[in-house]
Structure formats: structure tokens, C-alpha cells
Amino acid sequence: MTTTSNRSLGPGYRLAGALILLVLVSGLSGCGMVPLIGGEKDPRPPTELNKSFAQQLAVDTLWKTRIGKGTDGRALNLVPVPRDGRLYVADGRGQVAVLSQNDGRVIWERDTDLRLSGGPEVVGDLLVLGTSDGELIGLSAQDGRERWRAQLSSEILSTPRIAGEQVIVHTIDDSVYALSASDGKELWRYSYPAPVLTLHGSSSPIIVNDNAIVGIAGGRLVSLELEHGAPNWELTVTPASGRSELERIADLDVDPVVVGDIAYVATYNGDLAAVDIVTGAVLWRRELSAYAGLAADEGRLFVTDSSDILWGATTADGSGLWKQDALKYRRLTAPAILGDKLVVGDIDGWVHWLALDDGRLLARDRVSKSRIVHRPAVANGRVFVYANDGTVAALAARGQARRVPPARTGTAVSPSD
Q1: Is the dihedral of CA 181, 186, 192, 198 positive or negative?
Q2: What is this structure's pTM?
Q3: Rounded to an integer, what distance in angstroms lies between the CA atom of residue 336 and that of residue 297?
Q4: What is the rounded distance in angstroms from the CA atom of residue 331 to the CA atom of residue 405?
Q5: CATH 2.130.10.10 fits 13-22+56-397, yes or no
Q6: pLDDT digits (tens, 9 = 90+) for 361-394
Q7: DSSP result, 105-119
Q8: How far from the centroid of its chain's Cα atoms is residue 359's Cα?
């Protein structure tokens, strides 16, 4: 762990990123989607864990279970979602399950027979999920019965967002849709031409003050008003640079994080930046390449960079506070904040706990032998992780989990119901 001074967080990442991309895309022909860096084909060997590491924090695995086939061997954006004492989970072959946060008991489950790829999102009695075939499906959050489905233009690798009577979704071809939450009918669409080469992924919209903030390919960020989809502003966070299309990849696939009137974003092969969400002005930017994600609290920003180094920085100007490189190349998730701790998952199913104030490693616990791809979910003092093999686990620092009222049991239904 290293404390950093007031300088650029990640010098040299643009060149390193381009070299890694060159290895990954060799052999590709006629395809505009580049495999996501940090994926299973990433050539960089993960740093071995310190076998003499001494745990400084007692962590308990509260429960562990298995849901379907996990990601089904595909690069998907299926994340666990905690709501009202329940945990909503989906797998790549179409299974949707709702578990009790307290003990992992199945409340209801449904086989949709779809190639699920993005979500879920849950608000009230509506649960929405996207598919690899470009469908968006709306289910009842109480029992899983299908309410509607809609066909969109391309694969959905983002988490759809429910905003009042609308569902906002970002497809992989850089179209942003607003659909009716009641019946799935299209209300408006915003489309942007994609560059020749892009990473295989897309950011999830963030809903703020009747606007949707969305990161798109080419290092661009756009604010769309929800009523009609008209852009409030659009900016390029990281201008494309380099002589080849490969070197010019600067996608914004990281979900924006909004604190107050400021959105914090990061691009691959580019920059970490702060943007005023009212005016679209860039307040500051720091050279740092990221694709996994970031987290923020009042005054501090935490990010996993493209080399799987974790950084702590100030939200005021992006100055580095600390960095943690003991987990380099371990294909880390975006960080999650739980109290005064930071939590990430890695390629071998380990969950790592760090101190927010200085980035030191506090504890680790293995929940699976399969990779944890997405940010852990946090609720009621618990951390929920979902591994590629379908393992779902709940962890907590000893004595910190808060019991929630038991969720009402629903009914399992089949696709024909």
C-alpha cells in the first residue's frame, strides 16, 4: 500500500492499455467489439496472494447457495440486487431467483427461458432484465410472473433503470431507450453512432433530477431529459488519440457515480473525471484507465484501474490519497463501500476487505473458485457477491449484520404460466 502525492494517478496507462488490447484482438476479423480487458483471455498473470497475510478483521460467511449456471460462460452484467429484505439474482440461461437476505432461502424462482444478460433492476412490484437478444422483460417482483416484454435494437449489457413510469435502458449499439413501465411500449429513443472499435460492454444509466446520465463509446457522457429524451448536454471526457483505431479506444463503460451535482466517471485508456451534471462542464480530469468501476462518498473517490490497482482520491480535484497494488491483475470488481471499509471480488472467488482511510488490506474470504465479475452489493451490514459459476454468498464483518424482517414467500412459476 502506498500513499500518493498530488499528481496524476495513472501515468502510462494509455500505452499499456493499447498493448494489451493488441494481444486480445489479434485474430479478430470484421468485428467492431473488442473483448473486455480483464476478461478470461487477459494475458497478464494475476499477482499471487500473500500466503502469510494476517487477517485484521473477522469476516463471516453468513450463507452461501447456488443459482442456475451463473453467467453461462459469457461476459454478462448480471448483478445481485438487495431490496426490502430480499436479494434478486438472475443467471445467463434465464433463471430468476429471489432469496432472503437473512439466510439465503429461496422465496420464489422462475425460468424465463431467455438468455439474460443485464440487470435486474427492482422498484416496487416491477423487476426488469435485459437479454443478449435485445429483449427487455418486465416481471412482477412479488412472484416473477411476466408483465411485458419489448424488442430493442441490440444486446443489453447494462442495468436498466426504473424512473417513475419509465424504464431507461442502454443497449450495446449505444442507443438509449425510454419504455413505459406499465406495458413496455417505446416512448423515445436516443442513438449515437459508435466508433469503429469499442469494448464489449456498456454503462448503465444513472437517473438524477428527471435526467438520465449515460456514458457511451468514444469517451462521451450525455445527459438526456426523461420526458422526451432530448439531450441537455453532451461532452467528450477523453478525446480519442493515437494513430490507429485500436489506440483511439476510450470507451466510457463504467457506470457514472453521482454525489450532489457532480458525476464522477472513468474511461478505458483515458481519464478519471468530475463533471457538473447541470452544465456538463468538466471540473477536473486525471489520467487513469478504468473499466471495472468506481465508488464515492463525501470527499473521497475509490476506483479499480485497468491494471487492478485500487486508488483512493479526493473528489475535490482527483488528487491521490493512497494506492493498493497487492492485488494487481487479479481482475478486480468495482469497489463497494460498507461503512469504513472497501470491498472487492477477484478472479479466483476471493472477497477482499480494505480500509477506506489508507487502503490497507484487512481481510479476505473465498466464496467460490470462480470469478466474481461485478461490484458486491451492500445492504443491512451485509455484502452480497455473485460468482460466474452461480454461487451467491452473503458476508459480514463479525457482529455487523443487521437482521431484516422476513420477506413474504412467493410462488415459483414456469415460462408457460
Answers
A1: positive
A2: 0.87
A3: 11
A4: 36
A5: yes
A6: 999 999 999 999 999 999 999 999 999 999 999 9
A7: -EEEEEE--S-EEEE
A8: 21
